[in-house]
Amino acid sequence: MHVHANAGGEATATATGAAASFRRPLRAAPGWARAALRGRRKETRSCPSPLRSPPPAAAGPALDHERLDVYTAAVALDDVVVSVARAAPRGHGWLGDQAQRASASTVLNLAEALGRQGADRARTLRIARGSALELDAALTLLSHRGACGAQARTQARALTVRVVAMLTRLQAAATRQPV
Description:
This protein is mainly alpha-helical.
């Protein structure tokens, strides 16, 4: 396959071979062809850390979950988890992925719980708390296997204990709250 730029500056890929003589737009070309045309390797895209993005107050009034200390702590914990997972050596990626999923579940279920009431809120907070505990277990395994540094583990452990304690209190308050 050859990659060309046509007269309009649009990139196209031409298939080579006896049976294939056609052109297709670059967006339909394989990823390596698009990267070759641009003169660089295909880069992975990742969204910026929530801690490094502009504060939500700049976009307007804060939402319910953004006002809670537990949400701020859970997002800070997610930032630590993402940095640990990205630095995990080969062979430990599955455990880093599991830690990232548990961290995301904690943050997302916490935000979802604030849109609910009564027993439904308590159930969603219980799920968030369980995900935070799963996250701690994943980080413990990463630490035992040498894939998580002592400083990152200490920081993550302190944030996890804080998040779990606040989620426990929120869950207890949600079960006492009349519908």
